[in-house]
Amino acid sequence: MDRTDSILETLRMIEEEKLDIRTVTMGISLLDCADQDGERARRKIYDKIVRHAARLVEVADGIQAELGIPIVNKRLSVTPIALVAGASGDADHVAFARTLDAAAAAVGVNFIGGFSALVSKGATPGERTLIDSIPEALATTETVCASVDVGSTRAGINMDAVARMGEVVRETADLTADRHGFGCAKLVVFANAVSDNPFMAGAFHGVEEPDVEVHVGISGPGVVKRALEGVRSAPLDVVAETVKKAAFKITRAGQLVGRLAAQRLGVPFGIVDLSLAPTAEVGDSVARILEEMGVERIGGHGTTAALAVLNDAVKKGGLMACSHVGGLSGSFIPVSEDIGMIEAVQLGAISLDKLEAMTAICSVGLDMVAVPGDTPAPILAAMIADEAAIGVMNSKTTAVRVIPAVGLGVGETLEFGGLLGRAPVLPVNRFGGTAFVSRGGRVPAPVHSFKN
């Protein structure tokens, strides 16, 4: 393919197939900001974020104008705040969240992730303080995102943290009841969380990462769907090869943007996250890809198998295109952010049970799922436990970002607007695992976790 053909193909992917860079995310270590004086620590945090991220939006906008590839979001991720704020001994960490919010506003980014705690094996006093602070922190800030890692294949599942996070989700929904529990859209509960995830709400900057770096999260469901339209009725190995080639092209675009951003900001380039990230717009749906593969409607029988083909091919194509692949890298199935998912819920084609089955394959878990506003904390905790078990037993990242839609019931729709879209409220199984979750303790790590 000559240069002219390559340019025309890229333009078509942007204009007709909705190719974009979903996010350029700068990760910043705040470990050197820890201080016994909380106020002094917060000044250090604000100053460091503003110093390093001051030009992020300007640089990303410049690359967008130069290459013609839309860059939808500019975001920040920071060291899990529990590791930094814990040194202060402050009674709560809400002030740290407000500092993050102020710094994000100062540099003009969309979101900042890292109001986080990693408690898969147990929690320190500082981590417990941060977890207790999450509801008020999310209710009183605009851009701050929170996450808590409650399990890992190596450590097992911290069931005390699972039970507490069910309560935290419930409290966050109630504190943001005026927006039908919107605060929960900025809260993720993980198992096997990754330290270089550029996507919100689960991004944080891991302790093993450099002081500052830049990651890129790509998108492009429309590009993959258009490619599959050319191989209708072809065998599935041809389908996989077609997806792989499309993912290769998308990843190349992301790598170019990431390297340019890192070079111009004077920081290392981190990773490209290959995840196909949908939006609620027509032509930008992961669900439509699976339907193009032959599933009558996402949620029907065959959906999980089709998702397995898609996810594997996306990873293989991306790995061929870029040596530095990380984050979650696969396919996202957020209910509110994918027009095909929204329609499937409205038609009754997909349920929470089927979504849970699909999370054994996809990049994340129960993502942007609206449940009845009166869903109690023990049921939310049991949902978290189920997802954590899938992740821990399968050595993969799973997550729960579920929104108790305060004031709404099954069949009603929670409107978020923008990239967050809208979510029809799904019914939950009222036969919860309250007694199981309340046992607490730790689910032991699976036998296959011992590999040394």
TrEMBL record:
HAMAP family in the cross-refs: UPF0210
Superkingdom, natural source: Bacteria
NCBIfam families attached to this UniProt entry: PRK05313.1
Assembly behavior: Homodimer.
Classification via CDD domains: RNR_PFL_like_DUF711
Family, similarity comment: Belongs to the UPF0210 family.
Name by which UniProt lists this protein: UPF0210 protein GCM10011374_31540
